[in-house]
Amino acid sequence: MTADRPAIRLTGLTKSFGGTANAVDGIDLDIAEGEFFSMLGPSGSGKTTVLRLIAGFEQPTAGTVSLLGEDVTDRAPFDRDVNTVFQDYALFPHMSVLDNVAYGLRVRGVPRRQRHAQARQALETVRLGGFGDRKPGQLSGGQRQRVALARATVVRPKVLLLDEPLGALDLKLREQMQVELKELQRELGITFIFVTHDQEEALTLSDRIAVFNEGRIEQLGTPAEIYDRPLSPFVAAFVGTSNIFPDALSRAVLGRVGMHALRPEKVTVGRADAALSTQRTAPGTLAEVIYVGSTSRLIVDLDAGMRIIALEQNDAHRVTEDERGSRVSVGWQDGDIVALEKATAVTTDPATVPATVPATVPAPKHTTDTAR
Amino acid sequence: MRLSRPARGVLSIVTGLILLVIYLPLMVVLVNSFSTSTSLVWPPPGLTLEWWGRAFQSEGALDAVLTSVQIALIATLVSLVLGTLISLALQRFAFFGREAVSLLVILPIALPGIITGIALNNAFRTILGVQLSIATVIVAHATFCIVTVFNNVIARLRRLGTSYEEASADLGAGLWTTFRLVTFPQLRSALLAGGLLAFALSFDEIIVTTFTAGAGVKTLPIWILDNLFRPSQAPIVNVIAVVLVLMSIIPIYIAQRIAGAEKVSR
Predict the structure, then answer these.
(1) Each residue of B250-263: pLDDT tens digit?
(2) Nearest CA in chain A to B183
(3) Could you tell me which chain A residue has the CA closest to the CA of B176?
């Protein structure tokens, strides 16, 4: 558990599939033992490739992978003490659930009786005690997911790799599995490396998050750091939603130099004639009100020439929905403005499109990550 | 999908006609096997069971069946092993010349039998200096039987993808263990389907066989051809033909059952 012996250490990890850009482009990363670590990014950002490099399914073009201080770069997948929960689960269809879970023990030469007992116990921990005799095809998506978890954890790997394991589940089940994953990780004390494109999932589960973009780590930090202090417009827009002020608008609206971001929930909207209690205000016109259940999304065209989104709780005061097109006043606190220091790599370049587009478009929801 | 009445009528008639063209001649063979005439005249002047009795005592016929079964079995076995290995190589590994090898493996099934036959005959006798025998027939048959196994197995491997094999390796299994416990069980039905086809191909092959069989080797198709126009033997040939038709229903039925079961389980 020492700092110089992390569970996983990646140094200069690079993978090229022969295209012009590297799929993974010089990643340096330490993941501590027992950590719940997420790799977050859009499809094609290289996160899945990094996972496959750690598992050993791909060989890096350059760089090394170390497991607990030991260089495993040249070792085959079956020679590495890491296990994977695959996106499509990859349960062996011709084996019973019990045999699937016992597989890792079987190839290690554990006697039949003992490995079945251990597998049964593992199924017990994922609450599938009575399902051992079924075939994977007879299980629901959530149950298969649990079997895959049991199969990968029964051999007590040092590190568990999870490749979008909740991607195929519906929302309710996904939320339930998130809780179970977190509990399982605490119980087993194994390092989890979790790949996802779902920012909410990453924020909920992780001790630390690496946000991937174009084969590089755009930002590394705790969920709160990532969400509250995004360093680049990419992170600000991909993790949650942000109002992004390019340099010119920052000067005009915020009176600051450089690119800045402001979270919609930090923006308040009031009638043009009412005084807001915030430090800063700007006049605008209410363009749209979108009701989303517990909150409403207010879209305001500022007079300074920018469209801004505000998120308001639907409980207390509200500019009512019939006031579309009316004059409003938008307010915020100075402390909520985040300076985006790294003006790198925005997928949609704010210079070429109407300045506010990256701010108003919520992070894209991809259903699958096909990046290999 | 719904069809109009006339369309349905026309299609039924066409279907009926085609089936008739295929199966009527087979029925003639069946009836002829009971005919009292020895020269395949139609309609049969009378019916008898004599030929059936004689067929099962005809040493030439029984020997030929045994020879054919023996050749087909061994050729199929060889094809299963080699076909699986080459499929794995071409589908799971990248190497120089992969496309070329793939083409060369499939080619024999498209080659005219007479070319394969002459070429192998030449190679065996003049280049290798091998006596033509039952073994040379088996080798010759295996060259094209491999193709049916190869096609079935490679299609299955492609559809399976690599994720099961990766999962197995991830859980600590080496290459051989992964093949034994994960890949092979998933290939079984493809191997059975490819094997049945290979067996059938070998069993009724006549051209290549003619060129590669040793002096004493008489497969069933060759025996039939030899005896068809001998007046006393023609009815026995009919009996053998009927038996073979009945026998070939079995593997086709099994193959269809497998295909059906696969669809259900996926």
Answers:
(1) 877 877 777 666 65
(2) A92
(3) A107
For chain B, how many helices (H) and strands (E)? 12, 0
Q: Does B259 fall in a domain?
A: yes
Tokens matching residue B49: 């069971």
Tokens 């909520």 found at: A336
B13-23: per-residue pLDDT in tens? Answer: 999 999 999 99
pLDDT in tens, A132-172: 999 999 999 889 999 999 999 999 999 999 999 888 788 88
Q: Within a 10 A sphere around the Cβ of B201, how many other Cβ atoms?
A: 19
Please report, for the domain that includes residue B126, its CATH number.
Answer: 1.10.3720.10
Residues of A in contact with B185 (CB under 8 A): 94
- Boundaries of domain holding B203: 59-265
Would you mind telling me the total number of residues written for chain A in this entry?
Answer: 372
Q: ipTM for the complex? A: 0.78
Q: Is the CB of B164 inside 8 Å of chain A's CB atoms?
A: yes
- B33 within a domain of the structure (yes/no): no
Sheet holding A338-339, edge to edge: A243-245, A260-262, A338-339
Domain total of chain B: 1
pTM: 0.78
Size of interface A-B (CB pairs under 8 A): 60
CB spacing of B163 vs A90 below 8 angstroms? yes
Q: Chain B contacts of A108, Cβ < 8 Å?
A: 172
